[in-house]
Amino acid sequence: MSDPYERSAEYLDILIAESWEPLAPALADALSNVRARTGAVVDLGAGSGRGVRVICDALPQTPVLAVEPSAAMRAVLLARVHEADELRERVTVVPGDCAGVDWPDGVRAVVALNMIGHLPPGQRRALWGRAARQLAPGGALVFNLAPPFTPVEVERVRTARVVVGELEYEGWASARPTGADEITWRMDYGVLRQGRPLAGASVEYRWWVTTEGALAAEVAEAGLVLRRTGDSGLGLCVLERVSDPASQVG
């Protein structure tokens, strides 16, 4: 399978930094409210490791399994983990995806940020079922649900701009419907000096869309309950087992 991040990895970490400013404290708050007190945390689609750092800060001494299928993104992730003693001792970086990587039973939490749309419906349902089986009592799965929720056209828009030294880095996004529950994102990245392009890359990837209501019904089939947490604009959701005590408490 081709890796769209092979061409975009050099830009992604700096261009997502601003979006993590509100997301990091919201994720930390969600993790601090997970009732399970033992077990590892599994970070699916760990990317460049910004979420890994949040997990380690929010849950001291908890081991983290950071799962990332892209070799290009793992290079950034592993460098981030290796350069910090507190991460290097606790974080295991694993190549693979959520379908192919083994988790230990009794995990304290699963984090799946900015990646649910990568999963076709069948794989998404398999993830819910796996979480229901392998979460520790009181454990939770934390993910985010971002628009669009239906297959619509998304006009091209600049998503980020960062200045590093003498150069500007930009990210642009657009999407087109490509299926009944699917869109294809096009991401354009550019490097400019004084407004003049120096380098860039464009990538496309498939993204499966769904509504919160449809997801709530879907996870219920696996014995999970969905609740929102944090600022509504972040789309942060927590899944817990219906059978766990207090799972309905918001």
From TrEMBL:
Methyltransferase domain span = 41-139
InterPro entries in UniProt:
Methyltransf_25, SAM-dependent_MTases_sf
In terms of Pfam families, this protein maps to: Methyltransf_25
Q: Which GO terms describe its molecular function?
A: methyltransferase activity
Coiled-coil boundaries: none
The identity of this protein, by name, is Methyltransferase domain-containing protein
